[in-house]
Design goal:
2 domains, six-stranded parallel beta sheet, GFO_IDH_MocA-like_dom, globular, single chain, ten-stranded mixed beta sheet, NAD(P)-bd_dom_sf, Gfo/Idh/MocA-like_OxRdtase_N, alpha/beta, about 350 residues, Dihydrodipicolinate Reductase, domain 2, Rossmann fold
Length: about 350
């Protein structure tokens, strides 16, 4: 339950996308947030969504997105709309002084995201993208290891992967394969997480060069179904990632330093909601006969009372509450979103240029 000291942030949701079910639950679980309104282009659809997702009895149900943004009691909006609609609705939300939790990818390209950032800055509203794993306590534990020069050393290489095999109906009908809706396909949906993980491990230092890996799979409409890329920094760091709608469910990070290695096998959606783990090795070598490792990698277990999406809503709501008390919006989040989008744009450009290197 919320304490008396916490400001309750009232959320409106624009649209009834599948992911909005998960975030509705997260808003319900977060101690400083409350489900206040939902809007859909169909009033019936909005009513059904509200009743199916535990909206409080007094929640507002609207037959348009505009009505949610016009409601003076809505503090913040969650926008799970197709990527092509982000620029229109996020800019309008900012102009209506609504704080914005924006589903990823944040735009079809960085040129579409920049007007959203500008609108948020000029209207004093917080924006954060919906990269949930960033808010899991495990992520902070892993970062502590990566930042330890004694145990991990200097970062040398990062590999990330996010794949899941979809069915024929998805390949025909899902918005993530439609060029006019979510035209970035697997790169925007899955590659976003891989690129974010790489930047996270590299302290958000942008690579100098991005080269898409040969063999990207595209559908007839030209939307990416599977691709990968290598990223290169001036200091010699390298990273690779692979994302695909055509391979079995996998979500790995491997980060290798001069003195240690981090492995995680479920970085986006943990195997279990309230307990997760990662493995780390530090200063490992072989035994005398080269038949075993010493020391062997260790498994680190992290527990959490709140699922990661509720942790995300809680942190976002905390920032909104601070703004209500006179603080400025936290610029870290839009900056990280923009860098992720920049790398994503470079990968797409490299695919389109026949796998030529693209400078960032």
């Amino acid at each position: 339950m919320a304490t008396t000291t916490e400001t309750q942030i009232r959320f409106g949701i624009l649209g009834c996308a599948e992911i909005a079910r998960k975030i509705s639950r997260a808003i319900t679980l977060a101690p400083n947030a409350t489900l206040y309104a939902v809007g859909s282009r169909s009033l019936e659809k909005a009513k059904a969504f509200a009743s199916n997702n535990n909206f409080p009895p007094n929640a507002k149900v609207y037959g348009s997105y505009e009505e949610v943004l016009e409601d003076p009691d809505v503090d913040a909006v969650y926008i799970p709309l197709p990527t092509s609609l982000h620029i229109r609705w996020a800019v309008l939300a900012a102009q209506k002084k609504k704080h914005i939790l924006l589903e990823k990818p944040v735009g079809l390209n960085v040129a579409e995201f920049d007007p959203i950032i500008d609108a948020c800055e000029s209207n004093g509203v917080q924006i954060m993208d919906g990269t949930m794993w960033m808010h899991h306590p495990r992520t902070a534990s892993m970062k502590k290891f990566l930042s330890d020069l004694h145990l991990f050393g200097q970062l040398k290489s990062i590999q990330t992967c996010f794949t899941f095999a979809v069915d024929d109906d998805f390949l025909k009908n899902d918005i993530r394969v439609k060029p006019d809706l979510d035209g970035l396909g697997a790169l925007g949906d899955e590659g976003w997480y891989c690129i974010r993980a790489i930047l996270w491990a590299a302290d958000y230092e942008l690579p100098k060069t991005v080269i898409a890996l040969r063999g990207a799979a595209l559908n007839e409409a030209g939307v990416i179904l599977s691709c990968g890329a290598s990223l290169h920094w001036d200091d010699g760091k390298v990273a690779t990632f692979h994302c695909s709608f055509l391979s079995h469910l996998t979500m790995d990070i491997t980060a290798i330093g001069t003195k240690g290695t981090l492995h995680v096998n479920d970085f986006i959606i943990p195997f279990q909601e309230h307990e997760s783990s990662f493995s780390l090795a530090s200063k490992s070598w072989f035994d005398e006969l080269v038949t075993s490792w010493d020391p062997t990698p260790s498994k680190q277990i992290v527990t959490t009372d709140l699922p990661q999406e509720a942790m995300m809503v809680k942190e976002f709501s905390r920032l909104v509450g601070e703004i209500k008390k006179g603080s400025k919006p936290e610029k870290k989040w839009p900056t990280i979103s923009r860098k992720t989008q920049l790398v994503l744009d470079a990968v797409k450009a490299s695919v389109e240029k026949g796998y030529e290197p693209v400078e960032i």
